[in-house]
Specification:
The chain is an alpha/beta fold. The chain has helices spanning 2-21, 30-40, 63-70, 85-93, 138-153, 158-183, 199-205, 223-236, 250-259, 279-293, and strands at residues 23-27, 44-48, 74-77, 99-102, 190-193, 208-212, 240-243, 262-265. 40% of the residues are buried.
Amino acid sequence: MKKSLFIIVLMLAALTQVASASVKLVASSSDLASIAKEIGGDKIEISSIGTGKANLHFVEMLPSYMLKVSKADIYLKIGLTMDQWADGIIDGSRNGKIVIVDCSKGIDVLEKPTGKVDASMGDVHPSGNPHYWLDPRNGKTIAKNILDGLVKADPANASAYEANFASFTQRLDSAWQNWSTEAASFRGLKLVSYHTTYSYFANAFGIEIAGQIEPKPGIEPTASHTSELINLMSGQHISVIFREPYFSERAPNSLAKATGATVYTVPSSVGGVAEATDYFSLFDTLLGTLKKANGH
């Protein structure tokens, strides 16, 4: 009996050593966490603070998040001032050893404002539109930034991370070819979105975002702006409205009622809807919605 208990204790100790050997990552978003899983594989433990159904511009800095980051080896930031709240969480964690990876490094940023940025422009990001993960071609840049962070934090497993990176980029290249072929049938399609969320997605697949329900980024819809949108949509026969899961249905539904358009609640991040379970299915879901909207 004593011998059996001794063996069990040894096995538990061994499992504890394996668990403690894992690199712990915390990501600002579910998208970064999904890509990190691809690169880190079974060598890492990953969790995300932002969820697919939350507005990543606004995340409360909870003590539980600081505790989580205090035990982490790497923090994955979205950057471009999207997740400024992450700085407060990292500071509050008092983790001086954590490796911080800005996943926007190397991204060809869209919609960089020129001139002075002030409050009259709404919540404009001075470094440009931060929703860059919605162009799947940027997935490789994000993955490379994560790879560099993992190799820095855990050089002993560098070869495993590099092999996973090669596999991920190969799968992403293949998926890009399929997505591009699928998107060709609705290239030039015009739609209205709630926020400037889908600029990168539109740029990647030849979609035109004709207008936003927000008159300016982060500003609630106004009667005068909605009236302008109704005229725009009616004049250009725009029948598709994209709504992110965390925005109210009220304004999109009113616009749809006035124009005969259809509102589609679509993900802006992994987990935004049930079908978007990882970085690949995020694009499958978005393109599937456009395919349906275009009558295919």
